[in-house]
């Protein structure tokens, strides 16, 4: 029964991760479409925005400072470490 709950927990974690990646991709697309005057108001340059918008969807700036192995190395690596052979 515990193993089933673990898989349910990690299944929900995967769904949350997929949603986060979709949100990051959407935000980066929106950043790339901002006008130069809007960027100036934000204090960003076009170069800053190009660098940010070219980052891969899985590169989450909020996860870099986290200490848990599942956040440092990705959920897939953590699941494999825990359940894989």
Descriptive notes:
The longest helix is centred in the N-terminal third of the chain and has 31 residues. It contains five helices and no strands. The chain is mainly α. Helix 1 runs antiparallel to helix 3. It has one domain.
Strand % is under 5%
- Oligomeric state of shown chains: single chain
Uncertain runs: none
For the record, give the distance between the C-alpha atoms at the N and C termini, rounded to a whole number. 20 Å
How helix-rich are the residues, as a percent range? 55-70%
Sketch the topology as an H/E string, one letter per element: HHHHH
- The tally of beta strands, per DSSP, is 0
**Largest sheet data:** none
The geometry reads as: rod-shaped
Mean pLDDT value: 77
Number of domains: 1
Cα gyration radius (Å): 17 Å
Derived structural class: mainly alpha
H/I helix tally: 5
Helices and strands in order:
Layout: H1 2-32, H2 36-42, H3 46-53, H4 69-72, H5 75-83
What are its keywords?
85 residues, mainly alpha, 0% strand, 5 helices
Compact overview of the structure:
With 85 residues, the protein is mainly alpha-helical.
